[in-house]
Structure formats: structure tokens, C-alpha cells
Write a structure and sequence with these properties.
The protein is of the alpha/beta class. The protein has 10 helices and 6 strands.
């Protein structure tokens, strides 16, 4: 799907969200989006009992070099095409509200969607660097967090600075469906997805085709997760 064929104006908003809904928020640059993004959200949707998941395609990540980042409209269109699910919505609302940091986005959503039970979804690799995020402790105090397993990062993510600081607020995986209605800080670690796919690696492969490695059987398998 091209950016021209995608309704960018509509994507710069969130869909109507009624009180009581359980909504997962999954943020990133999505440059490019890939099947592990979709698989992680499907796992979170099922394990957490979510009604919807919103992919928040950010204008740029303050912790990453955004030189060469694909235009927002292009990333929104590609994410929409990949998501291909009636309960996964793709949004560029951060560009609309001028939010640069996740804390500002969450503060806005909490204020404008009262009664909606938001959960922040992140990969285990992000948990490792979560303590570097702007106002990370206040993020944890705004919404519950679900961390989805990744191949490799799962070995050290739970020993990371933020995970250790928030250890007493960790919810057993067996109680994951209760997370949306728990008062933050509260977080759960969801096992099951073991994917080495990353947008960074795919960008490198895109710019250096000769370095592309064959897709493993595991990466093919997550397409049906």
C-alpha cells in the first residue's frame, strides 16, 4: 500500500474509544514495521483480554538517530497494511498533538479518554533501556505496562535497571488478564514470542541488500501467531 492510497488525515487521530474499553498502546517508529510487531500485539491482545490495540507511529524517537527515517505518512501506510486486523488501529496522533515523549502522549490520552483502561505494550528490548526514557517512573505511574518476550533480550531484560526498580509491582503472568484494571504502577512479563526481527536490522538490510540473510523458519512461523 502506498502513502497516497492511505487516509493519512484519519490516521492522525485515534478511533473513538468508549469508557470501559481495554486498549493496548504500542509505540515506535515502525521503520519498517515487521511481523514481530504484529505477533507481539496479538499475544498481548489475547493474554491481556484487550478490546483494541493502537499502534502509535512516532514522528521520531528521541533516543535514536532519526536521520534517514522514512516519512511519517509512508510509515503509517505500511504499518496499516501490515497490521491487517480489525482490532489493531494505526495512529500518528503524536504528530497531531506535538508529543515528543511517551509520557506526554500518555498524559494526553489519559486526559482526553477518561474511563478507558490503557496498557502500554513494549518489547523486552525496550525494558532494558526503559530507565533512559524521559520520566520513565512517571510513565509507570500513569498506565500498567506489558512487556512481551523477545529472542535474546529476555535473558537480561528483567535484570535491567527499570525492571529491578519496579520489581515489587510485577504481576504474575497467570494474572495478566487483570492488568488493565490494576492501579499503576503494575507490569507483567509475557513469555512466548521468540523473535529476533528488528526494524534496525531490516533498515540495514534494506540499505545493504548483499547482507540480507535468509528468513528463518521461526520468523516465518510468527506470521501466523
Amino acid at each position: 500500500m502506498t502513502a497516497d492510497a492511505f487516509n493519512v488525515r484519519r490516521a492522525l487521530r485515534l478511533p473513538p474509544l468508549a469508557r470501559g474499553l481495554r486498549v493496548g498502546l504500542f509505540g515506535g517508529t515502525f521503520d519498517p514495521p515487521h511481523q514481530a510487531h504484529r505477533a507481539a500485539c496479538l499475544i498481548a491482545m489475547r493474554r491481556l483480554g484487550l478490546d483494541q490495540v493502537c499502534w502509535l507511529v512516532t514522528p521520531g524517537n528521541p533516543l535514536k538517530d532519526t536521520r534517514g527515517l522514512a516519512p511519517l505518512a509512508e510509515r503509517l501506510a505500511k504499518a496499516h497494511a501490515l497490521a491487517a486486523h480489525p482490532r489493531i488501529h494505526v495512529s500518528g496522533i503524536e504528530a497531531t498533538i506535538g508529543a515528543r515523549y511517551t509520557f506526554d502522549t500518555l498524559k494526553y490520552l489519559r486526559a482526553h479518554y477518561p474511563g478507558v483502561h490503557f496498557i502500554w505494550i513494549m518489547g523486552a528490548d525496550n525494558l532494558r533501556s526503559f530507565h533512559r526514557w524521559q520520566n520513565w517512573r512517571r510513565i509507570a505511574g500513569l498506565v500498567p505496562i506489558a512487556v512481551v518476550d523477545r529472542l535474546g533480550p529476555s535473558l537480561y531484560a528483567t535484570s535491567a535497571t527499570a525492571a529491578q526498580a519496579l520489581a515489587r509491582f510485577r504481576v504474575p503472568e497467570s494474572a495478566a488478564r487483570s492488568l488493565a484494571r490494576r492501579a499503576p504502577p503494575a507490569w507483567v512479563y509475557l513469555h512466548g514470542l521468540k523473535s529476533s526481527l528488528s526494524s534496525t536490522a531490516l533498515r540495514i538490510a534494506r540499505s545493504n541488500p548483499q547482507r540480507v540473510k535468509p528468513i528463518s523458519r521461526h520468523q516465518n512461523a510468527i506470521k501466523s501467531c
